[in-house]
Amino acid sequence: MEGIAVFSNLLELQQIDSKIDRLVEDRRTLPELLEHHQAATAAQEAQTAHSEAAARLHEVDRAMTRIDDELAITEQKHRAQERRLFAGGMTAREADHLRMEVRQLGNQVSEMEDEMLGLLEQRDLLDEQEGSAQEKASAARKEEQRLAGLVTRLLADIDAGLSHFRQQRADAVEEVEPGLLRRYQNLRERRGGVVVGELDGRICGVCHLQMSVAEHEEVIQEAVPQCIHCAAILCL
Questions:
Q1: Structural domains in the chain (count)
Q2: What digits encode the pLDDT tens for the residues 105-160?
Q3: Is 187 within the bounds of a domain?
Q4: Please, which residues have CB within 8 angstroms of residue 46's CB and are 6 or more apart in sequence?
Q5: Cβ of 58: how many Cβ atoms within 10 Å?
Q6: Residue 131: inside a domain, yes or no?
Q7: Residue 106's domain spans which residues?
């Protein structure tokens, strides 16, 4: 009965380790981790798109401010030169020169006004694009934050489970004979996964392969029975 208890304790340890392995794998392959990574990438891309749209809008605003300032100066100069021309008191040559300057200034004013109208149309379009990009960036950021919170909660649950089972493992290890524990740990290092199982008749509980009658008789005589197929430690 003592031998049965020893192997029963080892089987319990294996069961705990299997639970720990599953939780570690769950933590590594948590689907929400990938979803969060994708959402974070999408949020960054959306933020970049918004920043670029805002920068284009800012450039147009700067251009409009510059043209508006130049237009105000040119209009003021145009009006001043018109007043001089209408006031008279100059030679014909001076008047011709001034008329040419007034005409040039008028053309400059018209060109600036046309350019300003073009910029206004461009700004309306860019303003709409910037607003849309901002909405998308905000939505993407909220989704990333939602998934970040979800991942945090899920990982916390997994970590709580790991902490629980690791404490159980620490207690279970104390119940396993040191030599048997070393053999178990060596098997785990070499093969990984499940290395302890029950023997069901002549069938290994780990690899589920059947031994011959002679093989079975030989195995059950061993101090530490091990499957001839997978080397798993067998609990009789």
A1: 1
A2: 999 999 999 999 999 999 999 999 999 999 999 999 999 999 999 999 999 999 99
A3: no
A4: 133, 136, 137, 139, 140, 141
A5: 12
A6: yes
A7: 30-174
DSSP state of 211: P
Using DSSP, state whether 229 is helix, strand or coil. Answer: coil
Helices (H), 88-201: 92-173, 178-191
Confidence of residue 87 (pLDDT cuts 50, 70, 90): confident
Give me the CATH number covering residue 53.
1.10.287.1700
Burial 200-215 (b: 16+ CB within 10 A, else e): eeebbbbeeeebeeee
Q: Let me know if residue 133 belongs to a domain.
A: yes
Q: Residue 233: which of 192, 180, 164, 193 has the closest Cα?
A: 180
Q: Which helix (H) or strand (E) element contains residue 90?
A: none
pTM for this predicted structure:
0.73
Count the alpha carbons within 13 Å of 43 in the hemisphere toward its beta carbon. 17
